[in-house]
From TrEMBL:
Coiled-coil features, chain-numbered ranges: none
Name of encoding gene: Akr1b1-004
Keywords (A to Z) from UniProt: NADP, Oxidoreductase
GO molecular function annotation: alcohol dehydrogenase (NADP+) activity
Sequence positions that bind substrate: H112
PANTHER family found in the cross-reference section: ALDO/KETO REDUCTASE
Residue numbers marked as site, Lowers pKa of active site Tyr: K79
Domain NADP-dependent oxidoreductase: 18-288
Protein name as it appears in the record: alcohol dehydrogenase (NADP(+))
Catalytic residues (UniProt): Y50 (proton donor)
EC numbers: 1.1.1.2
Length: 317
């Protein structure tokens, strides 16, 4: 059975729980997408910078061509990469994703980060000292170029990702279209309450990325906390007869937040979406909320020199 949906501020329905595809290798991601659609996922989270959109698209198209689903049953998300922030490059960034995915339109197109990089054909453009090469493009100008994609019908909704409160505030003040969605890291160590409130007030839906702590990140260390093994989560999972991942996913769903766990393992893909037949009690929620720290899995520190790096303290850009 397909997962429940919720209404975006544009009136479109977005399915709760999507399949994450970052780090899913070519050779794995097509099978993961096909498995996900078979077990009820209708929302697939893609991005140009994951460098696997051709294979993710092959999985999507295989399921459409087999008659399992229709294109309009699916909610496909992709993201404008940092190298395509110059307003003149925004459309070509989208066209590359659409071409690779072999789709005519996206359901949601997000600005992946507020930061712009030089556009020299590389996903991570670097100078001779191996430092990322920034570009001086204001994310507000990038967003205004994304608004035009809506008029062309190439995307049904637009939104942002990894913005801080100040940056989202500027989009709300200076742009015409209120973002339909904001995708940020959310897990019990990083509850993001201020952003949750800001988005609620402005009717912007939230998607939680790295909801399981992203343990397959290239820069993960042994010293970092592993949320899937946190004793508080294990205790709740054991009592309910659910997996730790199901508890983590259900917690966000109960907060009204969409979740996009990544997996290439069929049994996990299947169980990660089975979170609509149980509830966490108010006590469980209190315990999970008490886990809050300032830990963040996706820091993107190599980009910290960028003028619009979002995770600086006392940010105002
Ligand atoms: N907007 C952004 O900047 C941004 C940043 C990060 C992520 N994202 C999106 O969010 C998605 C999810 O985040 P993520 O990939 O960082 O990490 P995640 O979903 O928190 O964790 C993925 C890891 O958890 C494992 N896993 C999945 N289900 C499990 C289960 N039931 N039990 C135990 N382990 C399980 C996966 O292993 P297997 O695959 O081996 O099963 C993988 O190692 C991404 O794939 C991407 O689509 C967006």
């Amino acid at each position: 059975m397909a997962a429940p949906t919720f209404k975006l501020n544009t009136g479109h329905e977005m399915p709760f729980v999507g399949l994450g595809t970052w780090k899913s290798k070519p050779g794995e991601v097509q099978a993961a997408v096909e498995c996900a659609i078979d077990v009820g996922y209708r929302h697939i989270d893609c991005a140009l910078c994951y460098e696997n959109e051709k294979e993710a698209g092959a999985g999507i198209n295989a399921k459409i061509n087999s008659g399992k689903v229709k294109r309009e049953d699916l909610f496909i998300v992709s993201k404008l990469w940092n190298t395509h922030h110059d307003p003149k490059d925004v459309r070509s960034g989208l066209m590359q994703s659409l071409g690779d995915l072999k789709l005519d339109y996206l359901d949601l197109y997000l600005m992946h980060w507020p930061m712009a990089f030089a556009n020299n054909g590389k996903i991570f453009p670097r100078d001779d000292k191996e430092q990322l090469i920034n570009a001086d493009v204001d994310y507000v100008e990038t967003y205004k170029a994304m608004e035009k994609l809506l008029d062309e019908g190439l995307v049904k909704n637009i939104g942002v990702s990894n913005f801080n409160e100040f940056q989202l505030g500027r989009i709300l003040k200076e742009c015409k279209v209120v973002p339909a969605n904001h995708q940020i890291e959310i897990q019990p160590y990083l509850l993001q309450e201020d952003m949750v409130q800001l988005c609620k007030k402005n009717e912007i839906s939230l998607t939680a990325y790295s909801p399981l702590g992203s343990r397959d990140r290239p820069w993960v260390t042994k010293e970092e906390p592993n949320i899937l093994e946190d004793p508080k989560i294990l205790k709740i999972a054991e009592r309910l007869g659910k997996s730790p991942a199901q508890v983590l996913i259900r917690f966000q769903v109960q907060r009204g937040i969409n979740v996009i766990p990544k997996s290439v393992t069929p049994s996990r893909i299947e169980s990660n979406i089975q979170v609509f037949d149980f509830e966490l009690s108010a006590d469980d929620e209190t315990v999970i909320r008490s886990m809050k720290t300032s830990y963040r899995a996706c820091t993107f520190l190599p980009a910290a020199s960028n003028k619009y790096f979002p995770f600086r303290e006392n940010y105002k850009e």
